[in-house]
Write a structure and sequence with these properties.
- The protein is built from 6 helices and 6 strands, in the order βαβααββαβαβα.
- It is an alpha/beta fold.
- A 6-stranded parallel sheet has the order 4-3-2-1-6-5.
- Helix 1 links the parallel strand 1 and strand 2.
Length: 151
């Protein structure tokens, strides 16, 4: 069983157009983007339209391209098809999301985030700090906070 890190930082998707020359190295092929993203972040949130359209081959590639401590958080769908049965693939039901997700764009206050991390640490359950917009500055700040707090 894979041990889940306590604080995992990531964005909705990994293919933000604005990241092409600001985050990803120049000339990085599209099919290497997830591998690179995985070196900087610990999770990715996938909209239902993305993960439902992914083939079994794509899922296998995504899982193989990421570390054993990297997680895929899936947006719930109206008609939920079978998701990959893997420990690193989590369905973000509303109840689960309320306990495990901090939307960075909605509450970018790092002091509040630090307090939430401390409360979450007491529970021993993971906290996914996610950005809908893919704001690299906020994501880097959240990653730095995670590291400073020892997670």
């Amino acid at each position: 069983m894979t041990s889940t890190p306590l604080v995992l930082v990531g964005a909705v998707g990994w293919q933000h157009p604005a990241w092409r020359n600001a985050f990803y190295p120049d000339g990085l092929p599209d099919d290497w983007m997830l591998s690179y993203y995985n070196t900087q972040f610990q999770a990715v949130y996938l909209p239902a339209s993305v993960w439902q359209a992914a083939s079994e081959t794509s899922w296998e590639q995504w899982l193989n391209d990421t570390r054993a401590t990297f997680y895929f958080v899936l947006e719930p769908a109206d008609a939920t098809p079978a998701q990959p049965a893997r420990e690193r693939v989590l369905l973000a039901t509303p109840a689960w999301e309320a306990r495990h997700v901090w939307w960075l764009d909605e509450t970018p206050d790092l002091r509040l985030l630090a307090q939430r991390i401390a409360r979450q640490a007491a529970s021993g359950e993971p906290l996914f700090v996610l950005s809908r917009s893919g704001d690299l500055g906020l994501l880097q700040q959240a990653n730095t906070l995670r590291q400073v707090m020892g997670y």
